[in-house]
Automatic annotation (TrEMBL):
Region annotation (Disordered) ranges: 654-673
Entry protein name: Baseplate assembly protein
Domain of life: Bacteria
Organism: Denitromonas ohlonensis
């Protein structure tokens, strides 16, 4: 140490640092993600020690006048400041680890959570349903089987993926005849009042528009006085070349309102009336033109006043002479007389029409009324309404030469959607609540001829012009518009309205390029179109209902009532239903000997050999349940959350998991929980391994059978595997751990319902609203799955959450769960960058920062997005000097505007209707528009 004195006029810095700056004052406002706990840094400590070198309180140091850094004493202060800097740094880190919000180590979060009885969630396995195909042997009876629990099916991995195994979790009855059940595509033809069409077998019917047909049954055959028949003139004849059938239509509906007459209902036959003819004498010359009283025809004429008429010029009711010689008119054939009186009957058959059957037919020549020719004399089976005044010779039309035509069942064209399905055959042994798999193409809709001015309003904004012949796919049930009021239509009602110009329809459609949107058009501008072989199939899982006779069997068909409406709109002809469906979850079964018990040892521990232990979705407070089954000496022991306060003889155990997902089983000490009984390898476990988001597979991915029950030839997952969740992250643990203290495993207040749902496995975000009255009275809960995934009503997570809220909440309070509404926005930014930074790197960093800041994980229900927020995120990227937001708008709005603040809606209680689910506004997946300022 130097003690040399220097002149007072010399600048020796001996008075530098005369103020101590440590310990620094610490201030931590609430809500910080990190707390400040350092009393100083290296420079602060150096400055404080140098200040104390000049302090009057330490006169012994007055002789130290140098402040040179090379001085040994000052070097020691520098070393000490370095030590203090390191110590204060780790003290701050240590302090941060003692608060849930600021801790960064998983161990810290886990231990603090355990203080309030919360364990970091280990994750949960994804769930789905598997549709199995059974072997069919032609000619051999199909024996029913049961697909056992544990049947394994593995996925086909894509690039950079690993194969995932799923196992069935419930025994499932299966039948080979359930492999591909068709839906009803035809109905037995039975004429009824109001019908205007029927279908005939074959293409060579010989019919043309203007031809007449007869629809008659056994009522008229057995009773000549019966009026249960109809004669109609065809308006159109349309052959169906693909299916070998012909559609015939007429304008005047079957039946009659006055007098009240119904079509035939028994032994119905359809006949074509091939010949249009008249009665003999219809073309007789007018006798008034043939002479006077002295002429030789006077003897053939009746003279009434000044008018002459032929003798017997009237209908002979016992023998009708037709003005033709037709050998195809035979005894037993049908013919009809039409009076042809204007103002009566229908436009195609004016006047009065009566049906007769020929009991006798004679082919002969006749000479009368100054004409001669061959005639067909027909004796009718009845003279009912057969009078000369009703059917004059000159006016009556005769429809004759009946030829029976074969009919076919009436095809059903309307699409399949909604809550009701009719199978195309009688299917026995289906059970209420049974899952079924539907697979087929979507229904096509075509733009009708001469339709103009139509366009598809695309969901992402803009529109696509549609022209005659364009075909699109239906994505949702059809809606009819009464003014601006939409009314949902059944599939049958929708098909009946097509072709009507007075009806306005609104459809959710998808075009051939995958763009989705809505179309508003008249019924006459749309028509159903047949599916094509290259149409991509869609599939889903539905459940047969459990109430009000959901399964009805009749002679030919099976009528099913579903628990919920179908998610897709299917083309009827190609739709197939598989009823060999079993629930399955991610993971594979492990059976092992865990070890040997030792009654002399307390709190024995054993580690499971395989990891991670599978947890499945359940209606518990946490939303998950372990798959572990542990038996000691073949006696099943029970897992408990903690051994604390367990009875001394209770056969219970506790499990813990480390950060790597390895599970350890802990047994009691005889005071809290029973000790293990001594024995050699007497601990046997059965559990499943595998869980997490890797099990969330798309539909159709699970196709490889790893275990093959007798008769099973294939399997597939018709719906995606959902609900898989990785082990709880620190961010989620910080949010979820306090929720258990807020709810205490029950839901009482409206906040409890939201907090309970947020802490439930498979649920990421939730919003609850209390609605005191109206159609949506009760708890209205908006939910979002992990990373924004939808939670289908058929999913285990949805059902278990609902059951848990009923169990741990008020079971008498109505509860409605809806998936959130995924709203998106787009933006355009002008960026001015620092020239020292690479352009591409800056733009990529800006886009990454925006996507992170406005991702699902960082946003909340109802949270707004403003220009300032977008600009601030971009401005915080290194290399960005200035930012100008030139566009900010919601998807679907005009892209040319800048909205200062975009709002996301929250549900609003209503006394008149059901509110919409909560919105969550995030950045659209489309590329962000970034331009560079000079």
């Amino acid at each position: 140490m130097s003690t040399a004195r220097v002149s007072p006029s010399t600048d020796c810095d001996c008075c530098a640092g005369i103020d101590a700056v440590t310990p620094a004052r610490i201030s931590n406002p609430p809500g910080l993600s990190q707390i400040a706990y350092r009393i100083g840094r290296h420079g602060d400590f150096v400055e404080s020690m140098r200040a104390r070198l000049s302090s009057a309180d330490r006169p012994a140091l007055a002789a130290l006048t140098t402040r040179e850094a090379s001085d040994f004493t000052l070097a020691i202060t520098d070393a000490l400041a370095t030590s203090l800097d390191v110590l204060s740094f780790y003290t701050e880190r240590f302090a941060n680890e003692h608060y849930l919000r600021t801790a960064t180590e998983r161990l810290s979060v886990r231990e603090m959570a355990r203080l309030i009885g919360y364990e970091l969630a280990p994750g949960v396995a994804a769930g789905t349903h598997l549709a199995f195909t059974l072997q069919t042997i032609p000619g051999a009876p199909a024996e029913p089987i049961t697909i056992p629990v544990g049947t394994r099916v593995q996925s086909v991995p894509g690039q950079d993926e690993q194969a995932q195994s799923f196992e069935t979790v419930a025994p499932t009855p299966a039948r080979a005849e359930w492999n591909a059940l068709p839906v009803q595509t035809r109905v037995r033809w039975q004429p009824k009042s109001g019908d205007t069409e029927l279908w005939l077998d074959g293409l060579a019917t010989g019919l043309q528009p203007g031809d007449a047909i007869l629809i008659v049954g056994s009522e008229r055959m057995s009773d000549p006085g019966s009026e249960r028949w109809d004669v109609r003139v065809l308006a159109s004849v349309t052959p169906d070349n693909t299916r070998g059938r012909t559609r015939v239509r007429w304008d005047h509906p079957l039946g009659s309102a006055f007098p009240a007459m119904s079509p035939s209902s028994l032994g119905v036959q359809v006949h074509a009336l091939r010949q249009r003819t008249a009665l003999f004498g219809h073309n007789a010359p007018d006798p008034n033109l043939m002479g006077n009283d002295d002429s030789n025809v006077a003897t053939l004429i009746n003279k009434t006043g000044s008018s002459w008429q032929w003798h017997n010029f009237a209908l002979d009711t016992s023998a009708l002479d037709l003005d033709t010689d037709n050998a195809k008119i035979t005894a037993g054939s049908w013919f009809a007389l039409v009076s042809n009186e204007p103002g009566l009957g229908s436009a195609a058959l004016p006047g009065y029409t009566e049906l007769y059957r020929a009991s006798k037919v004679i082919h002969r020549s006749r000479n009368a009324f100054a004409i001669a020719g061959k005639v067909t004399r027909v004796t009718p089976d009845t003279t009912e309404n057969l009078t000369a005044s009703r059917f004059p010779l000159r006016r009556t039309l005769v429809l004759a030469q009946s030829e029976q035509l074969d009919t076919v069942d009436t095809p059903v064209f309307h699409p399949v959607y909604g809550e009701a399905i009719t199978l195309g055959q009688r299917v026995a042994d289906l059970q209420p609540g049974q899952p079924i798999a539907l697979s087929g193409p979507r229904q096509r809709i075509a733009i009708a001829p001469r339709a103009a001015g139509l366009s598809l309003s695309v969901d992402g904004g803009g529109s696509v012009a549609l022209t005659e012949g364009d075909e699109l796919f239906m994505r949702a049930p059809a809606v009819r518009l009464f003014g601006s009021t939409p009314v949902a239509l059944s599939a049958e009602s929708f098909a009946a309205l097509l072709g009507k110009a007075s009806v306005m329809l609104r459809l959710a459609l998808e075009d051939r390029d995958g763009r989705t949107g809505t179309l508003t058009a008249k019924g006459s501008e749309l028509r159903l179109a047949d599916s094509r072989k290259d149409d991509a199939p869609v599939s889903e899982i539905a459940f047969i209902g459990t109430a009000n006779d959901p399964i009805i069997l009749d002679r030919d068909y099976t009528h099913l009532k579903l628990k919920a409406p179908l998610q897709q709109v299917y083309a009827r002809d190609a739709l197939r239903i598989n009823a060999n469906v079993a629930p399955a979850t991610h993971g594979e079964t492990v059976e092992a000997i865990l070890g040997s018990g030792d009654g002399s040892t307390a709190n024995q521990r054993f580690a499971l050999g395989q990891a991670p232990l599978t947890f499945v979705s359940a209606n518990t407070t946490s939303g998950r349940a372990s798959s572990l089954e542990l038996r000691v000496n073949d006696v099943l022991w029970t897992e408990v959350p903690t051994l604390h306060a367990a009875a001394p003889d209770a056969r219970v155990y506790e499990t813990t998991q480390d950060d790597e997902g390895r599970s350890t089983v802990l047994f009691g000490d005889g005071t809290e929980g029973a000790r293990l009984p001594s024995g050699s390898t007497n601990l046997r476990v059965r559990y499943r391994k595998g869980l997490g988001a890797a099990g969330n597979l798309a539909a159709g991915k699970l196709t490889t059978l790893l275990s093959r029950p007798l008769g099973v030839t294939g399997a597939v997952n018709p719906s995606p595997a959902t609900g898989g969740e990785d082990a709880e992250t620190l961010a989620r643990a910080r949010d979820n751990a306090p929720l258990t203290v807020l709810t205490l495993d029950r839901a009482v207040s409206i906040d409890d319902y939201a907090n309970f749902a947020r802490a439930f496995a498979g649920i990421d975000k939730a919003h609850a609203l209390w609605i005191p009255a109206g159609p949506a009275r009760g708890v209205f809960l908006s939910i979002a799955g992990i990373d924004g995934a939808l939670v289908p009503e058929s999913d285990d997570t949805y059902k278990n959450l609902r059951d848990a809220l009923v169990t741990y909440g008020d079971p008498l309070v109505p509860l409605r769960l809806l998936n959130f509404r995924d709203a998106r926005f787009r933006c355009r930014l002008s960026i001015k960058r620092d020239k020292a930074y690479e352009l591409d790197a800056v733009l990529a960093a800006v886009e990454a920062a925006l996507r992170e800041a406005f991702s699902f994980a960082r946003r909340a229900f109802g949270q707004t997005v403003s220009i300032d927020e977008v600009a601030a995120v971009a401005q915080g990227v290194p290399g960005v000097i200035a930012v100008h937001v030139t566009r900010l708008y919601r998807v679907g709005q005009s892209p040319t505007v800048v909205v200062p603040r975009l709002f996301a809606a929250l549900p609003v209680a209503s006394l008149t209707g059901v509110p919409l689910a909560a919105e969550l506004l995030t950045l659209a997946a489309d590329p962000i528009e970034l331009e560079v300022l000079p």
